[in-house]
Design brief:
191 residues; 0% strand; elongated
């Protein structure tokens, strides 16, 4: 029936498809339907509910509703910390989202704080040479780039590039993006 938890998965997936097509209003509607169904099935302290809160918070960043976004991502973070502990990839995802939110708000210090927390978890979970670690290094480099510290940005972008090349080779689109970030940082240094 319509109240089975599997229906929430379909709602969530439909929300994701809408988000891919930049239909944030429809995505939000389906993420909310999924989350409400998970809440009624599992209660408000279940990882599935946290996932719903996270998705709502993430789409609200795209809608530039930063206060509500922060509220939902923090709700997800609280559940994940309680259920999984502080050193879990779901906690790291929340820190990444909060870093992105703060970067959007031009709060570089807070963005760095959250991105560094995420990096610390990823290094603990995956080791220092992993694509997810490279993603965090790139995020930190992006903050430094926007904060007009191209020397530091360059260092983080280079570390991310070295890791990614070892995993996906020179021709991958992520490697090309990192090389572009490096060139932009070098241009800022030379200006």
């Amino acid at each position: 029936g319509d109240t089975h938890p599997d229906v929430a998965i379909y709602y969530n997936n439909i929300g994701y498809l809408y988000s891919l097509n930049d239909d944030t209003t429809s995505a939000l509607d389906y993420y909310r339907k999924a989350t409400e169904l998970w809440e009624s099935t599992y209660g408000k302290k279940h990882p599935a509910v946290a996932g719903g809160y996270f998705n709502i918070g993430y789409i609200l960043v795209d809608m530039r509703d930063y206060d509500s976004s922060r509220e939902y991502i923090n709700k997800a973070l609280t559940i994940y910390n309680t259920v999984f502990g502080e050193c879990h990839v779901s906690v790291s995802r929340c820190y990444d989202a909060l870093g992105s939110l703060n970067l959007s708000l031009v709060d570089y210090d807070s963005a760095l704080e959250y991105y560094n927390k995420s990096l610390s978890i990823k290094v603990s979970v995956y080791g220092e040479k992993h694509p997810n670690v490279a993603n965090s290094l790139n995020n930190i480099g992006s903050v430094y780039s926007r904060a007009a510290d191209p020397h530091r940005a360059l260092d983080y972008f280079q570390k991310a590039l070295d890791i990614m090349i070892s995993f996906v080779g020179e021709d991958h689109h992520i490697v090309k993006k990192l090389k572009s970030n490096i060139e932009a940082a070098k241009e800022k240094i030379n200006d």
